[in-house]
Batch of 4 targets.
Target 1
Amino acid sequence: MKIKAPKGCAVVRNILGLFPFLLILAMFLWHLALPDKTFSPKERRYLAQWPVFRLENVLNGTYETKAEAYFADQFPWRDLWVQIQEVSEQILGPGPDQREPGFSREGH
């Protein structure tokens, strides 16, 4: 014997299923609306800008690399995420990709 769930549960499941898509869409639209930053005073470095389109850059792969750097540097709440990373590194220590070569937690 099957028990039918109330209609309200189906609506909630549909909304929860759409939530990740709507979050990504909202972040993308917000990214388009925000002006690009040129400098990050917190990191004391210049941020990547949108690369100039040239066919030779597309063919040799530098355009894709520069576009990836642009998207890594220019997204909403970037300073908040950088701060979260800094605090987590202070609490947990640096991640395995930021440790010195040959160093492990066991000291080997």
Note: Helices lie at 7-33, 55-60, 62-73, 78-92.
Target 2
Amino acid sequence: MSGASTRPGAQQVNDRLNYLTPTKKPAGWATDAVGRRKRLYDTPKTPYRRLLASGILSDTQQAELRAHHDSLDPVAIATEIDRIQQQLIRLAAEKTRELEREVQAVTAHPNPSGIKLHRRQAS
């Protein structure tokens, strides 16, 4: 299940999403007493659990998935994802400040002390 990826952290994000994050799926519709339709959802499960429950995997494939699932360390995954996110924030910080300065220069109001008003005298 561990594949080579050119994006740092991609495997950790995929593992967290597919093995550790339960999601609910739409299961149908119901109608309340007034006649309004309401969406019904199933019990939240991880994609890993859904795949095991589907019955389409061979015993070997199930064993491989279980072994990979059992090898995962949720705390280490979350820590690594956070580390990469903080690194991205640091790398983007200077560019963000540069863009903010450009926007401020374009949208800045003129200095009112340099504006002269000529008043007409009432006749």
Note: The longest helix spans residues 74-107.
Target 3
Amino acid sequence: MSRLSGPVAIAAILLATACHQPPPASDAPATPAAAPSVEAAATPAPPVAPIPALPGLSFGQPIPAGGAWRADAAQISDECRTYTARAFPRSYAIVIAGRLERVTFGRGSGFRLPNGLAPGSTEDEVRRALPDLMAEPHKYAEAPAKYLTSSRLAPDAVGLRFEIDPDGTVGQIHIGLPSSLSLVEGCA
């Protein structure tokens, strides 16, 4: 059995968990689309990146109106907004400038990567599965707490960040674009 590492491993994990892919483009005329969601921006959209295990959501795109993910009642700003879904307790999505940037899964969310990693996994399990993650100190918790983050990502690539708690286990898994992976306090 071969073991992938670095960006190739992360890409393989994310591709293996994509439950929904946009339909292929066709030459047939497009049918009229539903009205754009409130989160839609007037600027051109970056490339679509489907989110693992979350059908209908894509990084760099607005969260679809009428879907399972709803804007939280209290927001810090109009530029950066958080969303939650009942199907994923202890999880949230970050939307910046109307485009989905990151989804965070916490303990009790039921989320699991195809390689078995999930909130509650040990740091050793994460490092064995993804040895090229970059470690950095946790902003608020004492060592051995830390962040293990995808390195060498292109600006439009999807990466991973594992938040390791002081007990040496994963407290949260962040999946998103590089510009938002390191947002420690979400939109704050």
Note: The beta strands are 49-50, 58-59, 70-71, 80-84, 91-96, 99-106, 134-137, 146-149, 159-164, 170-176.
Target 4
Amino acid sequence: MDTNIYAPPQAEENKLEINFRPLASRWHRLAASIIDSIILVAVTVPIYYLSGLMDQLLDGEVSSVSFLLLSAAISIGSFILVNGYFLVRDGQTMGKKALGIQIVSMTNEPVSATTITKRYGFAIGISYIPFAGSLLSLIDTLFIFSESKRCLHDLVAGTQVVDVQKDEQQTPNLDHTVEEKTE
């Protein structure tokens, strides 16, 4: 037998690559959301006028199921039209792109279309839950004040939002190699 069972355990050396990227500030995330909202209002309001939904809204006829479904379809469709390509390609909405922040995985890798769909599907989906939607959306948003600066939709999708501008300024210092010993 070549193995001495009485010998002390030997540790294997593993090199872990840590790709550190600074998290986006809460203010940048808020500003990006405001920019996205302004852009979406600019896109959806003309569609509401052309479809006749604005007349129903102004007349107070917003309780019909057809109005709510058409309104949701226009809003979600507009969001996908404006941001879909950039989200899948870069992990950024127009607002995030303007402020230099980006959605990435927890390992700082680009996110897939499936992850983007899960992230925004959760955030948008909970807002359409009758009676509780507004409260659940508020709770989702308030999670930004946790230590990890991640909203509930980030936790569900396994994403985080990082500051790309700071990352580009510090690129040479971000990749670290750490020696880890395992037993």
Note: The chain is about 55% helix and 15% strand.
